[in-house]
Amino acid sequence: MAVRLKMGFNVEELLQAEKLKDVKVISGERWLDREIKGVTIIEAPDIVKFIDGGEVLLTRLYAFRSCTVDEFKGYLNELTRKGVSALVLKRDRKVEDADTKIGLLLEFSETHAIPILEVPFEFFFRDIMSVIMERLFNEEVTRLKYFKTTYDNFVALALAPDSIGKGIDNILDMLAKLIRNPVAVFNQNMSCLACTEGADTELEIRKDAAPFETGTYSNYHYLKQKGEVPQCIIQVKMSFREKIYLVVTERNQAFNTMDSIAAESAITALRFEFSRQHAVTELEKKFQNDIMHNILNGKVHSIGELQKNTSLLGVEIDGCYRVIVFGMTNEGSAKGDFKAKVKDTNVLSNAIFAHISEARIHNDLDKIVVIQKVPKEQTQEEYRQEIKEVAEQVQADVAAYDKYLKVKAGVGRMVEGIINLPESFKEAKEAFLFVDVAGEISEDGNSQAMMFSDLGIFKLLCQLDDSSMMLEYVPEGLQKLYNYKKPQRDDLIVTLKTYLDRNQNLSKTAQDLYVHYKTAAYRIEKITKITGIDFDNANEVLAVRIGLVVYKMIENYNKDFI
Asked: How many domains does the chain have?
């Protein structure tokens, strides 16, 4: 028979029991500190295949009475792999080669640091089993009571009427007191959400982090990592498809089994608190979205209604604001994958929230609209640098989530007063649509943010919403090139763009296109025949440059309405 329950006492403590005063240590006295995790009577040689390790094995060698010495060595090898705590021996005269086998046991003890105990033949093994099981079961009862106590305390803390707004801090404070170590909780982006005094506020799961067994059954994944101060990291999946990390910094003592019981009770309370906060946040978002939609689209029809809405949003009615429209492309996502787009947009929203202060954020399907309060005295150049840095930071965050995501943003001009936001919103949308075009004509080809005030002459073109009217701004010769039906048309268009970008330098054009100089020259000659462009005429070249941009705008316009 076998009993196996995890606990925390050792062989030396076992020998201190009054009813075991006749038990003697015949080998391995140096290793009486081995932990006992169970007890098993060896009734058959094959029992060694079914033990898990850490047991005290009880035997009178009768199970090995007929096996050869070599077979007995094989059984001992099995015991070595299992890592038993101790072996309790009762000598039985009916065992063949008993003295030889006992000698092998003593060698086994010395080689593998496992103590061998001996009891008189008339001693009952059940007395040893009762001592071990009593201690094991008492330990389990203690754990259950501790779990019940901590669970009730954490639940009461989470449900307390005064916990609103500080529930997470209260839970972490109680946990830190229970386990006598500082604790912190991080979101899935490794940002610290809350912590107690002395806890690390930065988290990096290093390569040396290894799975950690707490000594109890758990639904959570534990990691232990070394460092200047060791850390225990518990990964928790939340109900709203995110995850958090509960991190214990072992400043005062090592994380143990009882600590894991307290931590898991705390996790239950944290899950409840985070779920409550998530529900409240989603409700607030929905409420704010409706208000912002009405304001941005000019659907507020009275000063009283405007004052009420701005009060609910928590913004000043006469402040200075800019509207920014953010969006993304995902080069690795299949077209029409709506769920993926929603998930990507949530990631974008979180990144924007982390990097733009004094802002209200509105989710508009696959785009994020931001109302940002700005200083009235801020110059255009100062804000241009600010939004550039913000765009880069947001891009870095979303790329960490998915390297195929590319962020772009359009920015409207500063307006005074909430009532003028629709104007800035319209400009931000137009600038957003122009980002891809700006990327085509900029030197780096990677424009992330475009300000409406920087569009120049193209502001006029943004006012047009009819592609046939836009086409009037494209020179007739360039239209012929776009209508050229032969396969090399796309190569010719790319060559023309590159040639103009490189100030009509054929050598640099050939280098950029990775073609031979003569190939580039042939293509330019071909373009000249098709379009009739006079590359020596500066006005004509400028018209062609504008025409190329307009064609890109037409492509984007058509894409948006397909």
From this structure: 4
